[in-house]
């Protein structure tokens, strides 16, 4: 009979080895694997005072850093990149021996390419690149490129195909998607998330106003199954979920095929 008590990991070398292998994706699956990396409190809150960092634990940081060390590309919405002050990816010392190649590029998703995003990419010194929707105004793309920012324009067509095509063209097989909540909701309903690596912080935000783990305009059911679960002496629950079949309307059976972009303010 299997125990329902999660394994307990710490940051000693043996535990790091187990953790690294616990984050290996499921065999099979698409050639471009998009794996969401998120944290929330027990009640589903993903930010305190507008940032997710206060929810983090040392083990959450190990998981987050391990997913970046595994990834060929880090993917994030522009709203999250701006709110969290994103810069170039770094490989943490705990995982440096498992990644002989340079840190992955951080690819910021946008449809409007605002000036503040261009400025942040410039200040990152090449560590942040842009993935612009096909509908992004050409003058915004030109302005970013003239400022020295690398801009990848996605091809026309359904968004799910356009993003996977771009990632494939960039040589990405494993992608760490870091949110935010509204974009995660869109990705889940569009079938763009293959796995969810979720850290549950050991706290409840009483009276919190969100944002919540997933935000969407309409309720959808996205079946999932847990592949890995563990905890650590300092608290928290760390899980890896595999996304199941196509999402459905709540109470219905119809699949979802939405190609609209998320509101970048919540991205």
TrEMBL record:
Residues 34-229 form the Bacterial bifunctional deaminase-reductase C-terminal domain. It comes from Dietzia aurantiaca. InterPro entries: DHFR-like_dom_sf, RibDG_C, Riboflavin_Biosynth_HTPR. It comes from the Bacteria. This is Dihydrofolate reductase family protein. Keywords: NADP, Oxidoreductase. Pathway: Cofactor biosynthesis; riboflavin biosynthesis.
């Amino acid at each position: 009979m299997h125990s329902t008590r999660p394994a307990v990991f710490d940051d000693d070398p043996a535990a790091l080895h187990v953790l690294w292998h616990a984050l290996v994706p499921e065999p099979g699956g698409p050639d471009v694997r998009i794996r969401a990396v998120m944290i929330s409190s027990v009640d589903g809150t993903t930010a305190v005072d507008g940032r997710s960092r206060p929810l983090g634990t040392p083990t959450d940081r190990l998981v987050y850093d391990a997913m970046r060390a595994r990834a060929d590309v880090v993917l994030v919405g522009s709203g999250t990149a701006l709110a969290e002050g994103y810069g170039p990816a770094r490989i943490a010392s705990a995982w440096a021996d498992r990644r002989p190649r340079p840190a992955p590029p951080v690819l910021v998703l946008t449809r409007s390419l605002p000036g503040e995003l261009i400025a942040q990419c410039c200040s990152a010194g090449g560590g942040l690149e842009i993935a612009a929707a096909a509908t992004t105004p050409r003058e915004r793309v030109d302005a970013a490129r003239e400022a020295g920012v690398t801009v990848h324009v996605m091809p026309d067509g359904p968004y799910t195909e356009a993003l996977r095509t771009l990632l494939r063209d960039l040589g990405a097989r494993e992608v760490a998607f870091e949110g935010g909540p509204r974009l995660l909701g869109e990705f889940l309903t569009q079938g763009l998330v293959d796995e969810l690596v979720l850290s549950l912080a050991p706290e409840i935000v009483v009276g919190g106003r969100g944002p919540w783990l997933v935000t969407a305009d309409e309720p959808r059911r996205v079946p999932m199954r847990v592949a890995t679960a563990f905890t650590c002496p300092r608290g928290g629950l760390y899980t890896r979920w595999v996304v199941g079949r196509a999402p459905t309307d709540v109470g219905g059976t119809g699949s979802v095929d939405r190609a609209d972009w998320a509101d970048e303010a919540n991205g």
